[in-house]
């Protein structure tokens, strides 16, 4: 499994991936909510498969999140969930710097 950490990708060994699947633990890394897959989003505390799919579907329909708080616009993501994940989510620098969709 590969997880985004900022602009880098971290590879998780098969043993570690299997341990994650069989335990209640979650990885404490920074997840870019604009590029993460549903599988990657499920590594966040309080985000299961259903909420992860909702995040991806919302992003696909509405475009990139401009701030982490915008994740609360996704149906099913309320303040309680946001409080659990806010320290581990980010939006990419391209979006923050207004470079979304630029052909530089």
What does this structure look like?
The chain has 104 residues and is an alpha+beta fold. The protein has a single domain, classed as DNA polymerase, domain 1, CATH 1.10.150.320. It contains five helices and four strands. It has helices spanning 14-22, 38-41, 49-62, 79-85, 93-96, and strands at residues 2-5, 8-11, 31-32, 89-90. The strands form two sheets. A two-stranded antiparallel ribbon has the order 1-2. It starts with a strand and ends in an 8-residue tail after the last helix. Mean pLDDT is 80; it is low at 99-104.
Radius of gyration: 14 Å
What structural category characterises the helix and strand content?
A: alpha+beta
Portion of residues in helices? 25-40%
Could you tell me how far the N terminus lies from the C terminus, measured between alpha carbons in angstroms? 30 Å
What's the arrangement of strands in the largest beta sheet?
1-2
What's the main sheet like?
Answer: 2 strands, antiparallel
**Count of individual domains:** 1
Number of strand elements? 4
């Amino acid at each position: 499994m590969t997880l985004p950490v900022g602009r880098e990708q971290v590879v998780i060994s098969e043993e570690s991936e299997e341990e994650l699947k069989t335990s209640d633990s979650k990885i404490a890394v920074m997840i870019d909510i604009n590029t993460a897959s549903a599988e990657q989003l499920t590594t966040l505390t309080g985000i299961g498969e259903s909420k992860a799919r909702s995040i991806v579907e919302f992003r696909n329909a509405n475009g990139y999140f401009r701030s982490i708080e915008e994740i609360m616009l996704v149906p099913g993501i309320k303040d309680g969930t946001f409080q659990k994940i806010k320290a581990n989510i980010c939006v990419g620098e391209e979006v923050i710097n207004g470079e979304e969709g630029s052909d530089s």
